[in-house]
Amino acid sequence: MIMEINASPDNINSVKYNVHEKQPYRTWYHFQPPQNWMNDPNGPMYYKGVYHFFYQHNPYAPTFGRHMVWGHSVSYDLINWIHLNHILEPSESYDINGCYSGSITTLPVEKPVIMYTGSDTNKHQIQNLAMPKNLSDPFLREWVKDPQNPIMIPPSGIDVEGFRDPTTAWQGGDGKWRVIIGAKTGDDGKALLYHSDDFVNWKLHPNPLYASDNTGMFECPDFFPVHISGSKSGVDTSIQNSSVKHVLKMSYQNKQLEYYFLGEYFPDQEKFIPDADWARTGLDLILDHGMFYASKSFFDNAKKRRILWGWSKECDTTQDDYEKGWAGLQSIPRQVWLDKSGKWLMQWPIEEVEKLRDKQVSITGEKLIGGSTIEVSGITASQVDVEVLFELPELENAEWLDESEVDSHLLCSEEYASRSGIIGPFGLLALASEDQTEHTAIFFRIYRAPNRYLCLMCSDQSRSSLRQDLDKTPYGTIFDIDPNVKTISLRSLVCLLLIINIILHILESYILCEFRPNLNPRES
Fold first, then answer.
1. Can you give the C-alpha Rg of the chain in angstroms?
2. Which residue, 84, 149, 217, 451, has most beta carbons within 10 Å?
3. 460: domain CATH number?
4. pLDDT, position 485
5. Of 277, 329, 276, 241, nearest in space to 32 by CA
6. pLDDT digits (tens, 9 = 90+) for 156-177
7. What is the CATH number of the domain that holds 131?
8. Are 64 and 173 found together in one domain?
9. Final residue of a domain: which of 332, 352, 372?
10. Higher pLDDT, 199 or 437
């Protein structure tokens, strides 16, 4: 079965896509293009009442390709999207081998400008500009490449295929614009800093804003301020004063993980000094411990918040991707702010997701006895927003863990997850088959450590399918838990086009649980 998606000719250009109708594994409230490959988010933005989302896209196949374009979609609520024509396609000598990742910067008088990486005739990576053709069009359907392109080429000592992914630019008190370009020399990553008076002529600062050894390419860097007060409200990218800290985020190519540093930015010296040298102390701040990469944030001026997007790649085989006709999705957009402690970032799904809620199924005061599972009945929808509150027993009885000698991902694997402990594992089995031979376990486990308590949180895909040719990597992290806080909450968004089973699960100890799944109105 094939269905056609038509953009309304009343407000946008008519576009038709062929999409397989029977797609049980396609998500329904994550962002996805109608078909084929998608990876990095490219500079989301808000303009004249409309949210724009730009993304890396191969319009010809569900695999990464040589001639990548910038896909473009618009929305009024960040949930429901209208897909428009591509805005950047390979056409000139400076991008003939691909229009790759970049960002949007809004110049004075509300004038957005794209800075993007092009792969030229020699497959060297260079930076280019594009501007809207018609600023009165809130959908910004047409863009024009700058006649002065390219505006930056790889400087001496930088790999010609390792010079990409410009950030959103920011303006200093001196009126100059700054931007970071991800780069590498051999296996060493660099965040190169450029500045400009006019946004066209750029000069490289002698020293990178940050550099590290053996991380590979600094992909998709991001640099933005956050309130030190713990306020959830966002801050415009150009704000620089004593009320903010700055976040420097990099996607380490060698590790395929998102790392970030918190620190002080000194624009007069063009220096960023991290609060701690995490890379050398082992106290790495990871932005997301799951299938999440190449993230990009933007300041939502309409609601005064900073919103973060990230790419989730497929765990299927390439043959699976061809059969279903698509690959890749974006994570649920999340609001991001600095925790009151000033030590890490907080993230939460944007409030618009809650507008999808309809029917509610609740369980309150349920006792979870060791070794038991409780199936949550009454869920007939294929998408669910699950909130669970677990009331914990006394933590003094928790088993001992030496954090320095364990790998959280190994502790989350099936071998360890199935072992009973003193407090845990407890959590959810989502997308569970009737006999539970297939399920995805999201669970916690509590440990004691010197002078503190630790919580292991896991998402275990090892039994998510009976097939053996899929990526079923378990993901997890260990974090401190306050013994005075007697509860742990868990929110899980399930959004496949499948009828699902949600099962509360515990192997050992006694846990009190309150469960509230909210069903997606589209499928309830």
1. 24
2. 217
3. 2.60.120.560
4. 85
5. 329
6. 999 999 999 999 999 999 999 9
7. 2.115.10.20
8. yes
9. 352
10. 199
Are 320 and 390 part of one and the same domain? Answer: no
Q: Is the dihedral of CA 177, 182, 183, 189 positive or negative?
A: positive
Q: State the Cα–Cα distance between residues 174 and 267, nearest whole angstrom.
A: 9
Residue recorded with tokens 């009151």: 340
How high is the pLDDT of residue 204?
98
Range of the domain at 469: 360-505
The answer to whether position 177 is within a domain reads: yes
**How many Cβ atoms are within 10 Å of 228's Cβ, its own excluded?**
14
Instruction: List, for residues 183-198, the tens digit of each pLDDT value.
Output: 999 999 999 999 999 9
Res. 16 pLDDT band, cuts 50 70 90: very low
Q: What is the pLDDT of residue 520?
A: 55
- Identify residue 76 by its one-letter amino acid code: Y
- If asked whether residues 199 and 50 sit together in one domain, one would say yes
Q: How far apart are the C-alpha atoms of 255 and 257, rounded to whole Å? A: 5
If one counts the domains in the chain, the total is: 2
277-310 pLDDT, tens digit per residue, is 555 444 568 999 999 999 999 999 999 999 999 9
Q: Are residues 272 and 387 in the same domain?
A: no
Token output for 514: 């309150």
- Residue position matching structure tokens 């490449």: 145
Q: What confidence score (pLDDT) does residue 417 get?
A: 62
Which among 137, 138, 148, 128 has a CA at the least distance from the CA of 88?
A: 128
Lowest mean pLDDT among 66-75, 254-263, 453-462, 510-519: 510-519
SS3 annotation, 306-357: EEEEEEECCCCCHHHHHHHCEECEECCCEEEEECCCCCCEEEEECHHHHHHC
Res. 381 pLDDT band, cuts 50 70 90: low
The string of DSSP letters for 110-165 reads TEEEEEEEEE-TT--EEEEEEEES-TT-TT---EEE-TT---B-PPTTS-TTSEE-
Say whether both 183 and 286 belong to one domain.
yes
Residues 287 and 392 both lie in one domain: no
Nearest to 408 by CA among 460, 479, 478: 478
Give the three-state DSSP class for 8. Answer: coil
Token pair recorded at residue 163: 């010079």
For 196, the enclosing helix (H) or strand (E) is strand 188-196
CA separation, residue 173 to residues 4, 93, 498, 511 (Å): 51, 36, 53, 55
The reported pLDDT for the residue numbered 505 is 56
Helix-strand-coil split of the chain, %, nearest 5: 5, 45, 50
Catalytic machinery residues: 40
Q: How far apart are the first and last CA of the chain?
A: 23
Whether 397 contacts 423, CB under 8 Å: yes
The answer as to whether 178 is a domain residue is yes
- Mean pLDDT score across all residues of the chain: 87
Measured CA to CA in angstroms, residue 308 lies from 83, 86, 177, 292, 484 at distances of 20, 22, 23, 11, 31
pLDDT of 79 over the 60 cut: yes
Residue 82 falls within a domain, yes or no?
yes
Question: In this structure, is residue 17 part of a structural domain?
Answer: no
Note the pLDDT of residue 516. Answer: 61
